[in-house]
Amino acid sequence: MATAVCARELTVTIGGKRILKDLNLDVEKGAFHGIIGSNGAGKTTLFDTLVGFRKATSGTVRLLDSNPWPRNPQLLRRIGIQHQSPAFFTKMTLVEHVRAVASIFDVPSAYVDEVLEALNLTAAAHTRCTKLSGGERQRLALASALVHRPEVLFLDEPTAGLDPAARKSLVELLRDTEFGTMTVLYTTHYLEEAERLCDVVSILDQGRVLVTDSPRSLITKAHLGTTVLLPGALHQEQQVRGLFSGVEKGADGLLVRTDDAASAFALLTHNGIETAGAVVSQGTLEDVFFSVTGREISR
Ligand code: ADP
Ligand code: MG
């Protein structure tokens, strides 16, 4: 598989402190690749280094088969970057801003309209940048990052600071937008979001990539098992404890941990345990993060 972005033994030291430590990363062309990590893990430093805003202290970085450092204007045209704290031309309206960005790259103006439409920004097109809502600002930042149809798009916490409704609508947009063959690298600390959006995620912890795989594979490999919640079986606790070793009592019912939900149900039914309203849940990326790093993610 062709690689869009690659880092080998990448170390970045800032002010004597090692921020990235022998980091390895491969991002396949066309993938929607998430980098998840706590606040301070090194996500923004990693992006800055991958795009050539910051020099690697040691190790190598390849971006579209080139070295991004020193800054290469030809390469910059082929990538799009949404910064964590985007800055806009404050005197301009939204559409003027996107046109200004587009003109830097000689993008046809028809394509500006297309991007505004796709990102649900047409209604706000003539609003001054300073008057936009949080969700509109993030979508404007996204429009500005992808209006020139980059081959690789870097999104640094595109949904941070949004209220849950705006976050959800931006996530749906990201998922539904026709990225085509675009490669997307995206950082977040919202793990349920990464689980829904990403083909592949890397867990970045204290400057190192600890694991990289699809969310589903990470969850399966972590052997988190399955939890079955039995809301109607609280009065049968002793019997259920006799059948399974991992049984807990919760406010909503009995919780049974198992590796095989089908066999568990067969056993429960055979023993006359109430299974009406049972809820089966798999592990989540949140659980994987905890099992891999030993900590909850911090924001
Ligand atoms: P994240 O984006 O995952 O929150 P950052 O890459 O912003 O993490 O930061 C990683 C670490 O590097 C933090 O401890 C931060 O304080 C430090 N750091 C980042 N940039 C600088 C800088 N310019 N000067 C000093 N320390 C920095
Ligand atoms: Mg950051």
Automatic annotation (TrEMBL):
Please name the PROSITE patterns in this protein's record: ABC_TRANSPORTER_1, ABC_TRANSPORTER_2
Q: Where is the ABC transporter domain?
A: 5-231
Give the highest taxon in the source lineage.
Bacteria
Membrane topology is: Peripheral membrane protein
Keywords, A to Z, come to: Antibiotic resistance, ATP-binding, Nucleotide-binding, Transport
- Gene3D superfamilies to which the protein is assigned, alphabetical: P-loop containing nucleotide triphosphate hydrolases (3.40.50.300)
InterPro entries per the UniProt record, alphabetical: AAA+_ATPase, ABC_transporter-like_ATP-bd, ABC_transporter-like_CS, ABC_transporter_ATP-binding, P-loop_NTPase
Subcellular location as annotated: Cell membrane
**A GO molecular-function term, please?**
ATP binding
Q: Which family does it belong to?
A: Belongs to the ABC transporter superfamily.
Instruction: Enumerate the PANTHER family for this protein.
Output: ABC TRANSPORTER ATP-BINDING PROTEIN (PTHR42711), ABC TRANSPORTER ATP-BINDING PROTEIN NATA (PTHR42711:SF5)
Protein name as annotated: ABC transporter ATP-binding protein
Origin organism is Dermabacter vaginalis
